[in-house]
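Subject: Sanity check before I submit

Could someone independently write out the structure tokens for this chain? I want to compare against mine line by line before I put it in a report. The sequence has 129 residues.
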Amino acid sequence: MATLCAYECREVIKFDHVLMYNFGSPRVGDHLFASGYDDSVPLSFRIVFDRDIISGFPKMISLYKHAAIEIIIDGLGNFIIDPTFVERMFMDSRRSISDHMMTSYLKGLDAALLHITYMLRSHPTQLIT
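---
Independent answer below. Compare away.
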């Protein structure tokens, strides 16, 4: 719903700047929608916890496509921003309903925050890009 709302805010209501984050979102449109959405709302981030099964639906012969920049996070706080095809090949398939629970997402985000905080304190002159 966040994806559809962000698109409507940009295209219908005509807000100048729209920033969107969603958690565990399934695919919400076809290839044409995803392309138009990414052009219209470029600051969009789709956070996926580890093996969240819901974020892989619906697959139906590639009729649906994800929009937004994907960020995959695990329970240890490791994350990949916009994973490549090769990185995806080494990941477990998305088969866990428990990974769709908000508590799983919070665990991963808390761990990632600890990693980032540690990195910033250890290396205060280096920027994270």
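---
OP: Matches mine. For the report I'm noting this point. The chain is about 35% helix and 15% strand.
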